[in-house]
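Query structure, 90 tokens:
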């Protein structure tokens, strides 16, 4: 998790070559966000997003719109699958 005054970024780092790493990472991020919401006021942050990164698959060749939509439906936040994490407050 990365946080500054008004930005909260959840980060899941993977080191997998299997094809299901996106689904597993999405599920782990959903659990983490759920646990965070139980203990903290997530509404204090202007931007909340989640990043899923995999060093073995730095470039996405296959799109994963279903996983992105599932994540949004389950959390209300954007899931970004990328090798770079963009922090706006810096």
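Result returned for the query:
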């Amino acid at each position: 998790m990365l946080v500054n005054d008004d930005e909260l970024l959840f980060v899941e780092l993977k080191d997998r070559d299997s094809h299901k790493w996106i689904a597993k990472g999405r599920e782990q991020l959903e659990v983490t966000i759920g646990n965070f919401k139980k203990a903290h006021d997530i509404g204090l942050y202007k931007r909340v997003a989640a990043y899923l990164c995999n060093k073995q698959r730095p470039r996405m060749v296959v799109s994963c719109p279903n996983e992105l939509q599932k994540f949004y439906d389950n959390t209300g936040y954007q899931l970004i699958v990328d090798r770079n994490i963009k922090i706006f407050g810096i």
